[in-house]
Amino acid sequence: MFVSNRNFRVAILWLAGTASALAGSFGVSPLRAELKGAHRMEVLTITNSADTPLEVQVQAVAWSTHDGEDQLEPTREILVTPPIFKVAAHGQQVVRVALRREPAPDRELDYRVLLTEIPPPATDEFSGAQVALRLSLPVFVAAAGPAQEHLQWRTRWTGDADVELTAENTGNAHLKVIDFDAGFAAGAATAHVPVTRYVLPGATATWTFKAPEGVRRNSAVHLTGTSDRGAFTADPVDAGT
Question: How far is CA 48 from CA 8, 11, 116, 155, 217, in A?
Fold first, then answer.
């Protein structure tokens, strides 16, 4: 993957799964780290499927969500080693992710590990845009005490058939919403909303979708969905218009 020093762009891939991923020539497994109790370190395996060597830089950041937007801040609470390395063609490299502080007593701690490709210098003949790949992996540190997500759901109709659905996590652990079906009155069609979004403790997430044809405005909504903790159902509160 050639990248120009004068016209540089980073393509970010936010990983939300639990197995492995491969994007271009740069792969990683597993796709998230979960640290709990005595388990204070996770091992990531970086794979280079290209015919040329790969150089990668690793950084840990604190992760929070404000007004629906992810916020990433530098942190020293998570140690990643090695911080920069080269992977031979068709080779692998192990990266260790370790917690440097005590878990919080009553709240999950949330971080991300950023793995950024360092492209080789462009040749004099190359004049295109440079694109480097960055993988962003979530790191969850479980609370020392009991922890549980608790989502409060609200709906608001914003148009003739537009439904704004908001989930507020008042618990102290995350929930990853994978998808859900929004059902309305008996006999009405359901709206399937495929999503993959983490709702962190104290954060909110919002989805907007169209109600099926024939559904009356301000109709009650019933949710049936899947998450990283299994199936869930919910009857959102009508927040008005």
Answer: 21, 17, 13, 45, 52
